[in-house]
Design a protein that fits this description.
The protein has about 160 residues and is mainly beta. The protein has one domain (about 20-160): Porin (Beta Barrel), CATH 2.40.160. About 10% of the residues lie in helices and about 70% in strands. The protein is built from one helix and eleven strands; from the N terminus they run αβββββββββββ. The protein has one helix spanning about 1-20; strands at about 20-30, 30-40, 45-55, 60-75, 80-95, 100-115, 120-125, 130, 130-135, 140-145, 150-160. Strands 1-2-3-4-5-6-7-11 form an eight-stranded antiparallel barrel. β1 (about 20-30) and β2 form a beta hairpin. The two termini are about 35 Å apart.
């Protein structure tokens, strides 16, 4: 019975993995992040980012998960590629030794996908709204993470 269930799960994973749209790449903005995108329909995709952000004069670990919608495609340069506009919403968490934050994030992206090469270049704005806490032995201070509004980035992905 265990082998049968394992076979079913493996076959679902394999057929799902080959039938979908994957992209991997990097984003440079207020820090550096590795980017993975998984398109599960023609209009929707999930994006995960993990990396380091420069925040309050120190480097912090930063993780973001977004659900994105492909809002618009423009055929302005048909011989070179397709322009696109995407928007999304998600969650952002991060921190360092004695500092942590969590928040809701949005995303607006304008980009270009090349015809001859499976690459996409885009510029995005991903503001983060949420609380932050600074803690130490014997105390803590909570506040609003206002630096999250300054999150403009350049993303390059390889499309499978």
């Amino acid at each position: 019975m265990k082998k049968f269930l394992l076979l079913i799960v493996a076959s679902l994973f394999v057929t799902g993995a080959f039938a979908q749209d994957w992209s991997v790449g990097a984003r440079v903005g207020s820090g550096f992040q590795a980017v993975g995108q998984y398109g599960y329909s023609n209009k929707h995709y999930v994006e995960a980012r993990f990396g380091a952000a420069w925040l309050d004069s120190a480097v912090t670990a930063d993780f973001t998960v977004l659900h994105n919608w492909k809002v618009l495609t423009m055929d302005w340069t048909p011989s070179a590629g397709i322009w696109f506009f995407d928007a999304g919403v998600g969650v952002n968490v991060g921190g360092r030794e004695n500092y942590a934050y969590v928040g809701v994030t949005g995303m607006a992206r304008l980009g270009f996908t090349f015809n001859k090469v499976p690459l996409s270049l885009s510029v995005d704005y991903s503001p983060v709204i949420g609380p932050a806490i600074l803690y130490w032995k014997g105390g803590s201070v909570a506040g609003f993470r206002d630096i999250g509004f300054a999150n403009l980035g350049l993303t390059c992905t390889y499309n499978f």
